[in-house]
């Protein structure tokens, strides 16, 4: 959906309908944040699969992932819309090219908080999970090598 909204965004912004542009910018923002959130959830799943291998039963795990994956971005978008729906709009980059219009976040502070900071948090979480998984794999490998050395003697 992120790709579909992105590809149709410029074309739909050419209709000069503020409501349509706000809708497109909101959808683009939502699906971008949803992609980041699902990427973060995948790293949590990766962690559970490699580090917390045993006794990791989480009741209704998929339902909880879906609520987080689709709900957290919805909360961010709802918050931005409640504060001011005019944060979304048509940002023309060039007067000579009518197809340069693009519906997106118009306020830099909102962009940096709701996109860049959001991505940064996801990136930090993913990095922490990745390092933890690598350390776990390394410790298992080290234990296996020690065990195999003692078994051969």
Describe the structure.
- With 153 residues, this protein is mainly alpha-helical.
- The chain has one domain.
- Helix content is 74%, strand content 4%.
- It is built from four helices and two strands.
- It has helices at 2-13, 18-50, 61-83, 108-152, and strands at 88-90, 103-105.
- It has a two-stranded antiparallel sheet with strand order 1-2.
- It is found in: Membrane.
- This is AGRG4 protein.
- It comes from Pitta sordida.
Give short descriptive properties of this protein.
4 helices; single chain; mainly alpha; 74% helix; 2 strands; two-stranded antiparallel ribbon; transmembrane helix; AGRG4 protein; GPCR_2_secretin-like; G protein-coupled receptor activity
Structure described in brief:
74% of the residues lie in helices and 4% in strands. The chain has 4 helices and 2 strands, in the order αααββα.
Question: Strands, helices and their partners?
Answer:
Elements: H1 2-13, H2 18-50, H3 61-83, E1 88-90, E2 103-105, H4 108-152
Helix pairs in contact: 1-2, 2-3, 2-4
Radius of gyration: 22 Å
Mind summarizing the main beta sheet?
A: 2 strands, antiparallel
Give the neighbour order of strands across the main sheet: 1-2
Q: Domains counted in the coordinates: how many?
A: 1
The assembly state of the depicted protein chains is single chain
Rounded to the nearest angstrom, the distance between the terminal CA atoms is 59 Å
Poorly predicted residue ranges? none
The outline comes out as elongated
* Helix proportion range: over 70%
Mean pLDDT: 89
